[in-house]
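>> received
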Amino acid sequence: RLVALLPEGQQTEDKLRENIRSPQVAQCLQRLQSALVDDAGSFNSIIANFQLDASDGAAAMAAGNPIEAFLNCLIKDVEKKGDGKKSDEGEEEAKDAGDDGMDES
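>> returned
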C-alpha cells in the first residue's frame, strides 16, 4: 500500500525501503519517540494533532508504553478508515447496480 504513495518513477519496494531507512525518516522518528516518551503531556498533543482517538492506546499508556499506545492509536485509525472506505464503496456499487440509465419521467 505504501509503494503507491511514492512519487512517480519511484514506486518500487526498493525505493520504499530506501526512503524508510533514510536519515531524514530516522531523525523524525527519533524526535517523535522523544516527544512521546519524555513528556506525558506531549502524548495527548500528538494524538490530537494526528486526530487520533487516545482511548485506542489507553491500555498501553496505563502500562507505561507511550510508543505502543501511539502505534495502537494509528492502527485503530487506519482500521476505522478502511472499514468506512469499504462501506462507501459498497454503497456506490449498490447505487450503480440500481441505476439502469433509464429515465422514469
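>> Residues 100-105 have pLDDT under 50 and may be disordered.
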